[in-house]
Design a protein that fits this description.
CATH class: Mainly Beta
CATH topology: Pnp Oxidase, Chain A
Strand content: 25-35%
Largest sheet: 7 strands, antiparallel
Number of domains: 1
Structural class: alpha+beta
Number of helices: 6
Distance between the termini: 28 Å
Mean pLDDT: 94
Oligomer: single chain
Helix content: 25-40%
Number of strands: 11
Low-confidence stretches: none
CATH superfamily: Electron Transport, Fmn-binding Protein, Chain A
Shape: elongated
Order of helices and strands: EHEEEEHEEEEHHEEHH
Length: 211
């Protein structure tokens, strides 16, 4: 991502929150001279204090990526939306833009054994079934033969870049105007982005008062 100090975050808690809220990720690697990308649900490894990810891939994605032999990039994308310059106060920028949040995590995957892979599959299912009216928990005995077609991964995050672009470079009136337009019904309604803009604004105010 293009670096912009106004939008960059080095706060690991911000990264954790973004990953937890947006667990559908893109896993990217370079193997045998080719770029490979796959899409999988990814969770934080809550059994460790270090920033690490857990997931699984279906075979033969493990071989396509050459997993376990080199670093991979895992990309998480938060809510995003178009911002029209007509929403700014008169005299402000005339350039249209896009508000978004994203985090890029780099690390070398650790291949999990059979039991740990099954643990990850059970946890992934439980994570997403918890809000279902009649949840279907994954039975380990039933899942064991299915799990043989997958490869479990734990990815310690060696480094990350995080960008939260929520109109931080705009004046307060323009920021509120953007929030109001993103909440209004219509083709550009993005209430989650409006929520994230308010969170970013509150965080800026808190940081400023602490200085």
């Amino acid at each position: 991502m293009r670096h912009n100090p106004r939008h960059a975050s080095t706060d690991e808690q911000v990264v954790r929150e973004l990953i937890a809220a947006n667990p559908w990720a893109t896993l990217i690697s370079q193997n045998a001279g080719e770029l490979v990308a796959s899409h999988y649900p990814v969770l934080l490894d809550e059994s460790s204090d270090e920033l690490a990810l857990v997931t699984h891939v279906g075979k033969p994605d493990d071989r396509l990526h050459g997993l376990g032999t080199a670093e991979v990039l895992v990309v998480f994308q938060g809510p995003h939306g178009y911002v029209s310059p007509s929403w700014y106060v008169p005299g402000s920028s005339r350039a249209p833009t896009w508000n978004f949040s994203a985090v890029h995590c780099w690390g070398t995957p650790q291949i999990l054994d059979v039991e740990d892979n099954l643990d990850v599959l059970v946890r992934l299912t439980a994570h997403f079934e918890q809000h279902v009216d009649d949840p279907m928990w994954l039975d380990r005995e039933w899942a064991a033969p299915v799990a043989r077609g997958t490869v479990g991964l734990r990815i310690p995050v060696d480094r990350f870049t995080c960008k939260v672009k929520m109109s931080q470079d705009k004046d307060p009136v323009s920021v509120q105007n953007v929030i109001d337009h993103l909440r209004a019904p219509g083709p550009y309604q993005q209430t989650q982005v409006a929520d994230d803009m308010e969170i970013a604004r509150d965080r800026r105010s808190k940081d400023a008062s602490a200085e």
